[in-house]
Amino acid sequence: MNKIPMTSHGMERLREELNQLKNTDRPRISKAIGEARELGDLKENAEYHAAREQQGFVEGRIQEIESKLSLAHVVDVSKINNNGKIIFGSTTQLFNLDNKKECKYQIVGEDEADIKKFKISVSSPIARALIGKEVGDIVEVNTPKGVVEYEVSKVEYV
Fold first, then answer.
1. Listing from the earlier edge strand, what are the strands of the sheet with 119-121?
2. pLDDT digits (tens, 9 = 90+) for 32-58
3. Mind giving me the DSSP string for 79-123?
4. Where in the chain is the domain with CATH 3.10.50.30?
5. Residues 6 or more apart from 23 whose CB is under 8 A from it?
6. CA 38/CA 79 separation, integer angstroms
7. 77-156 maps to which CATH number?
């Protein structure tokens, strides 16, 4: 099986979600199913069917998170001997050569990606184009609107 790269922060967030699902959501749904059963005929009991549907979702998510955690390869970029190249976990400041604007992204695992927080998935087109580059390099990224050129301005390992 392939290891799943993630930051220590990403692993902690998955563990918190797993804890929430197992210790709060699962018991709440189980209680709702029990209460719905007491109402009688299960074939026409909307509360029962809704609770069972929620239970299926929660159990599926628990399995998914446990699988990801078992395959996790936690990368602490602050402990890696950096050589100035963009790697998983590094934060990169870019200058868009087309619109002359600066942008900053951290390359993270797929579950951690959040564009609003400027965190991009390691499997995204821009991250794949950036990996291995260093300050001063020009990077071409294929986007739905065409090729965009960036110049790497800064690489941080925090």
1. 119-121, 102-108, 91-96, 146-156, 138-143
2. 988 888 877 777 778 888 899 999 999
3. GS---SB--TT-EEEEEETTT--EEEEEEE-GGG-BGGGTEEETT
4. 77-156
5. none
6. 56
7. 3.10.50.30
Length of the chain equals 158
Rounded Cα gap, residues 145 and 158, in angstroms: 32
CATH match for 4-74 among 1.10.287.180, 3.40.1280.10, 1.20.58.100, 1.10.10.60? 1.10.287.180
* Short-list 137, 131, 158, 143, CA closest to 95: 137
Residue pLDDT, tens place only, 52-98? 999 999 999 999 999 999 999 998 887 877 788 999 999 999 999 98
d(CA 61, CA 68): 11
The model's pTM is 0.79
Q: Indicate the pairing of strand 91-96 with strand 146-156.
A: antiparallel
